[in-house]
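sorry for the late reply, my laptop died twice this morning and i had to redo everyting from scratch. anyway the thing you sent over, i finally got around to it. pasting the sequence first so we're on the same page, its 238 residues, then the predicted structure underneath. double check i copied it right bc i was rushing
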Amino acid sequence: MRFMPNKYVDFVSDVFFEKCVRHVCDAYNEEVILEDKKLQANGVDPIKMTFDMINEQRDFKKWRIKESRRQKDKTVNNAIGEFHQKLLGGVTGWTDLETGHESKLDLKKNDNSIFMELKNKDNTVNSDSARKVREKLMVQHEKTPDAKCYFAYFTPTNGKSEEKHWTPTTKNVPHHENIRRISGSKIYELVTGKSNALEQVWLALPLALKNIYGKENPLSEEEKTEFYKWFNLAYFKR
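ok and here's the structure:
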């Protein structure tokens, strides 16, 4: 029987890749204008509402549309983080720890040699959040002293994909060589063993969206070339 290569990436099945893509698209498919109860669920600032409505000349209907889109974009960003977690957790030898795992971390290698806390961007983690991430990694390190424990973020603000020791910036915080930071394409490379794994994912997305939903990539060939420059700036900035 002849082996048929995957259509998308070479480290998870096509069926699993499409499942992960659908997870993100479901977030886009939520209703555009949310009901007032849903809008209020995440807290609404009436002071900001006043500034927005008068400065931008928006009535309640226009404000609802804008606020719905803002909250929806937050939902989409969360889903994209979950996309990475689910996809990497589907690689042979790895597990998506999901919500409720005792470690409170996101991803691990099945032999317990690597654990990860995953974030979309490093600039969304303030000093207090970073301290809590480090504390979680330290707890895991005490349980598995030989394991490498990573703070991993997919979109580094410096545009560099790298792996390095996480040097504590606070006094009296213990130094451990196995508490590390990793970003961008290096995360995918570490999990899959393939240096181009993240690029495989990025290049596969238009095909997957076309196959699943019949949506064509709207970019011209010239724009695709321009987009490739943006990809390199996000992960391979010199």
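The two ends are 46 Å apart (CA to CA).
thats about all i looked at so far, will dig more tmrw
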